[in-house]
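ok so I'm stuck.
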Amino acid sequence: MKRISAITLGVLVLASCSQTKTGSENNCEACNADSVATEAVGSFKVCDFDNFKLHIYLTDDEMADASFIVEGQDSLVTLEQPLFTANASEYDAYLAGLNKPVAARIADFHLGNTGADTIIMPAGMPEVVKGPQYSGMMSHFAEVYGDKIVALPTGYAVEMDFDNAFTEAGVPFTFLKGASNDFPGANILIGGDVVYSHWAPAKAHVNNLYASDMAGVDARIAELEQILGTGATLYVGGHGAPATADDVRFRIGYLNKVKELRASQPDAASFVTALEEAYPGLPGEEGVKAFAEAIYAE
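replied:
not stuck anymore, here's the structure
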């Protein structure tokens, strides 16, 4: 079912890349070229599936955002377009260089440079982005970053129900319920091969934005088990680099270790020591203390 509501709130060198499948995993290679433009802000990767390509744009912005383009045979779908103006210009130039019309624009968790174009959102998200928590967040970004970020979208939003497949650019999309401790956005199954989530399941420590209490840890485990059950081979997120099913399994094990240590350690400091000893050298240690303090504040 569709519902429509109003939302009121560089130089590139292109090259062809492919994805190599090994068993059930995928290796998504960076797009490389003989020369790299010095004006480049972010970087692109391209993954080639049977009936579509996924172009992944890692913005390298202050929030480590990622944006995407799904390329069908005759047209394109944008997903989570960039928020920062420098990235938006780079993304739009790359998009134009693909020389295909845009069939649809999907905004899941992140509003971006979609302007007056109609966007597709998961059911319920248009009201959320107009609500105090989300609009307050965007107002804060505007205060901090000023004209470094794009104007908010002014087009209409088409709401798509969860668990009902729809097709754009010849590629099937299904919105699956995201984690219950996050905005009510979707984990999006794309072409049966890719899952997009708010956070890519990196082999790294989590922070208190990802989960701020033990109920949130349980919600994230349920989410990870859900997306792993899709049988997808590539897992991408609005924050973070592309990941594999092995990364998803690692994150599930890591969060179960968090639960084990939360039950066995008497305080946040002991928890931090135990978790870092369990995963020596794991990236993201700078966020472990705040995460521990959050889950011990319950």
